[in-house]
Design goal:
This protein is α/β, with parallel strands linked by helices and 540 residues long. Among the domains are: 42 residues, no CATH class; 92 residues, PDZ domain (Pdz3 Domain), CATH 2.30.42.10; 241 residues, 2-enoyl-CoA Hydratase, Chain A, domain 1 (Alpha-Beta Complex), CATH 3.90.226. Helices cover 22% and strands 23% of the residues. α8 crosses α10. The longest helix has 17 residues. It is globular, with a radius of gyration of 28 Å. The N and C termini lie far apart (88 Å). Keywords: Signal.
Amino acid sequence: MNQKLLLALITVMSLVLNACGGGSSLPPIVPKIPKITEPGWLTGQFSDDSIYKDLCAVPRIGPDSNGDTFSDAQGSSMHEKMWLRSWTNDTYLWYSEVDDNNPSPFTVAAYFNQLKTNERTASGTFKDNFHFSQSTEDYNQRTQSGVTSGYGISWEFVSSSSPRRLIVRYTEPSSPAAIASVSRGYELKTIDGIDFINATSQANVDQINAALFPSDAGQTFNFVFTDEAENELLTVNLTSENIELQPVQNVKVIDTAVGRMGYMQFNSFIRAGQQGLIDGFQQFVDQGVTELVIDLRYNGGGLLAMASQVAYMVAGSAQTSNQTFETLQFNDKYPNVDPVTGNTLRPTPFYTREIDWTTSQFINDSPLPTVNLTRVFILATDNTCSASEAVINGLRGIDVEVVLIGNTTCGKPYGFYPTDNCSITYFTIQFQGVNAKGFGEYSEGFLPVTSPVFDDQLPGCTVTDNFTQVLGNKNESLLAAAIGYAETGVCTLQNKPANKPKNKSVNENSLHKSGISIKTPNTILDSIKIFTPITEPTEL
């Protein structure tokens, strides 16, 4: 064989062996990763948000817990921020009041947090206290399935900084807390031996937060509860579970001097609540109630269409026929078109039938029960918000008398379409709702007064939520005041009006870094202040 040919053959064989794992000193072949071109920012110039949508620093793969797949593609955090910027400029109700800051120095979360107006109302409160985001997975789990991880306790955060005060509002039926006999009015004293009231170190505060807000099911912590006199009432180990929320509780009929009064505790306008509402109102119909109390004191809102259903079940067909429950108003770029759905704007009617929330979100053929009343009592606090206030405003728009018992509502005549991008669901104010009379300016909340003068004032009684009686007990302060008003026409139980907290931001879902204050839950998340129109339901 030719010597040169033999040398060439040996060289080729050597390369083959080295490629198969021989001791080659050649560098490995590394696949090329496409270079991501970062979008640029120019002040005052906005591209269509669709250019940046679903371009993620960490794209999702595979279906989520609901079986949904994603259209995520490889992008960068700058793509995510530029999408937020363009989306805000297009759909935010007060887009012209948002500072167009360079996104580059911000994290995605920090950039979103500042994409809102900093203007204030006449009383000095921020115009937008309802701007927040959360994990899409968490949002879907709670709003679609009505499930949340925890012990089944609804907490009243009286004070998050030392000396702290945390009171049990109520517990979910059959939850770990309910089974352990944790009751309304119990106050938290210690967690795993840590002084909840006075702890100051960051380590202790972190432990407290981990126990109060368990990230998963199966976590066990020791709780000690006391009464107001600090007498120890209960020491118990609580293990977190995935709690199936029951938005409707304590449905009952109470005999009063003016007839039968229906009572219903309604905690959240989420999909899981529809059947409980139907069953509750049917019970009121069957037992012939002539007065009605809906307890919305802890109801932060929810689905706008469900608010319409509730209003219809109160008022009935005669008062709601051909009437408008609410009309949505978007920013001045969209006077006639919904910027999210692209549909021509049309008023939200009073929905008279069930909604199929599981699949089509269409209205079906099953009629809703109704008590056909011209007056309703609403029990309220500053946690009564959004869709709860829409029920009040919608009924007043057709001249149903709403008597407000408790305190000033939170003041949220606004709403949004929760929008997912790159595993985060964002909530930014996109519309304001007005009733059939064109009224929707109750951003300071609805206030109970003896003699109403202004449109955001309602007849009623200012009464403190005092936690000494279980909800639904006729001796509980707010319900007792409603019964007294129904029987006498005046406030037999009345407190001085409480000062409504100013600048109560709902974007509080982060630990105060001082180590002094505990984490307070985002009140939107805690009460589901989701005020979302369903996608143009078709009446079948």
